[in-house]
Write a structure and sequence with these properties.
single chain, 481 residues, alpha/beta, Dihydrodipicolinate Reductase, domain 2, six-stranded parallel sheet, binds nicotinamide-adenine-dinucleotide
Amino acid sequence: MTNRRSFLKQSVSASTGVFYIAKTSWAQKSPGDTINMAVIGFGGRGGSHISGYKKLKDEGVRVAALCDVDSNTLSKGVGSFDKEKLKVTGYTDLRKLLENKDIDAVSIATPNHWHALATIWAVQAGKDVYVEKPVSHCVWEGRQMVKAARKYGKMVQTGTQSRSSRKGIGEAVKYVQEGNLGKILLSRGLCYKRRASIGKTEGEQPIPESIDYDLWCGPGPKGPLTRKNLKYDWHWTWAYGNGDLGNQGIHQMDIARWFLGEMELSPSVWSVGGRLGYEDDGETANTQIIFHGYEKAPMIFEVRGLPENKDSKNMDKFKGAGVGVVVECEGGYVVVPNYSGAIVYDKDGKEIKKFEGAEDHFKNFINACRSRRVDDLNADILEGHLSSALCHTGNISHRLGQKEKPEEIMEKIKGDTFAADTFERMKEHLAKNEVDLNKDMLTLGPVLKMDGKAERFTGNDDANAMLKDKYREPFVVPDVV
Ligand SMILES: NC(=O)c1ccc[n+]([C@@H]2O[C@H](COP(=O)([O-])OP(=O)(O)OC[C@H]3O[C@@H](n4cnc5c(N)ncnc54)[C@H](O)[C@@H]3O)[C@@H](O)[C@H]2O)c1
């Protein structure tokens, strides 16, 4: 028998391609009711999601379902709940999980290429969503996520947890934006984080038997595995990951944009970098500078995956930060050295102020789920989309670039002092790692101009073609959400 609900579901999916449509379960909830959470993907980061929600037991949160395409991971996860005598349902296919009407919200920690589709399907199925950073694998799908969140009235939180440092980083942002240090001259994000070689394999590698590889690939291409580890090392492939810009870097990109207060993509972007110091199966740059030409003040982002020198285990630091943000202002500068605070210095480098404090980002999500106010989210999906997209546009410039000699690169960028100084420091860093830039040349990307309102590049078809992935049926991010 076809009841009204399933008829509605069928007719909607037939006419618009929408997979799921369900009445929000929140409509029937009162503030004290239990929130049934599901965690999707818990190879690494998803484990912190599970423990994060478990900690919120007294806030009425229950982890009611787990989903992973790796049967080993799934049975381990479900087994640990069994041991604690907690009831949890295990799923391999997130589409089956989303059919469960008892689930109120999902928390997604799959690889990047799944984030957008899983989020869009989830909000269409009536769930609120916490989705890891970068929220998207390409620019276009991030905007689709924002549209879907708004259309279905769902809370979608980005996994950039430093946004919940309101008393720390948030207050420092306010301090700068109120003009206490004069105008901002530059916002600089830093990701100096060791990334060693992932090894070099020969030919096709075996897929672990416990993995449903079709589901793992999902919207991405389903090709042979050409690296040793299927898990985690996908970060360094273009098909599923976004390099360190979109891995660690997105956190600092987001903080750097937070200080600038920019709510559009930058009007111009270029990149210089490469994968240097070793030869392995990775594709993404391990050393990179990207330059976002915002009008009020530019944003520079630096990635360094190699150590401070060839024989060292230590990483470089810039003004006290390794993985952090440095905001240069007329009257001094601010350093954000971690996820929970900021230090203000005057022009002479004397510390003049400190901001510290962070809330629980998962709890903030749950609070917003209950209040139903997007404004209550510390990292609404729009923020996540914009910051993720700033990583993607930088990578697009890199991928369209050409290998050039250091002098040729300097000749082209020397008009901007900040860019030229940053490039000089990059060269010194690579020299200390014994990288010969006349042999292993850096790639200089084109300056790409962007229409921030349309989120399209102007006058560059090749760059525009890279704004949207080619999805694999039936895992297609819909044009109409
Ligand atoms: N916010 C943070 O501080 C932080 C820290 C680390 C990672 N992350 C993010 O978390 C995400 C996961 O990273 P990771 O290091 O845990 O990766 P990982 O490869 O170690 O784990 C991903 C897990 O997802 C599973 N999976 C893949 N496709 C799935 C699907 N369709 N449905 C269900 N499960 C699926 C895999 O089997 C695996 O167990 C990434 O997007 C990463 O950027 C965020």
